[in-house]
Fold this protein.
Amino acid sequence: LYRVTIEGTVEEAVVMNAIEEALNRYGRPRIMVLIREKFDGRSNLPGFTETETVIQDIMGRAGFEFVDARTTRVLMERQKARMTRAMENHVSEDVQNLLLGDAGAEVIITGTAETHDQTPAIDEYRTGMQLKSAIVRIKAIDMYTGAVLAAASVDAPGMYAEPNVASRKAIEHVMKKALGGIETGRTSFRAGTFVDALIRQFTKAATNRRIGILVTGLDYQDLKK
């Protein structure tokens, strides 16, 4: 066993950048997505779903950061009990320690996504296309407090020759309605009702949240500065 002491100098700008980054992220929390998904009755586990990918793609364009899918999958396998409680909105201290402390997830988006076959409704036209209907129910949970920041229940159809692609397109249409996106002829992201509520409620809570900064190794003059 070796004990090593490392000494160094921290530039003031580094500390200021850390504070500025913390403040700038108030309206853009780091997110983990946990969706239970069923495509025509076939279940996909959280951490592996098309819906999660679509959410991350759309919200990523608005500047949101996400816990990477690999971390989510590992936690689903190794911490199933706590992850299940998180998906059921039971934010106990051990769940906070796991997701907020270890994974860095300030908000989790939980819910369900289902698609159902509607192809017989268009069979008479003999289009050769698959028609799927999707319904997604999601909530955004503040991991600091356990409060629900936003909720939505949205449905939409999707059509394509391949059934899985038709299901994904239905999910994409649902998510664009709830989350927003970049509209034709525009370059900026326009937030949907779900994202708008998430940002407003998270920012409101964050303005009343204490920020702790631990600084060590300063003499009296540097501490005053």
Notes: Strands lie at 30-39, 42-44, 65-66, 107-117, 130-142, 148-160, 180-181, 190-191. The two ends are 38 Å apart (CA to CA). The longest strand covers residues 130-142.
